[in-house]
Amino acid sequence: MKRKRFIAGATCPECKETDTLRWWVDHHIEVVECVRCGHMDRRSPNQSPQPEVVAQSADVIGIFKPE
Ligand SMILES: [Zn+2]
């Protein structure tokens, strides 16, 4: 079960209402939802970028040389 807690004193950036935001953690991502207008905001606590797959092959076959 996910615990959804209201954020006391928080103001929704969409509808500007106060005390309508609740948040919970879903798959290690903080989710903030406004129960009034349905605004949702997700943010990862750890902004760790995905490691890019480096595909550097030394064996390059078939290089076309326009000469
Ligand atoms: Zn709202």
Automatic annotation (TrEMBL):
Species whose genome carries this gene: Veronia pacifica
Listed Pfam families: DUF2387
UniProt-listed InterPro entries: YheV
Organism superkingdom: Bacteria
Protein's name in the database: Metal-binding protein
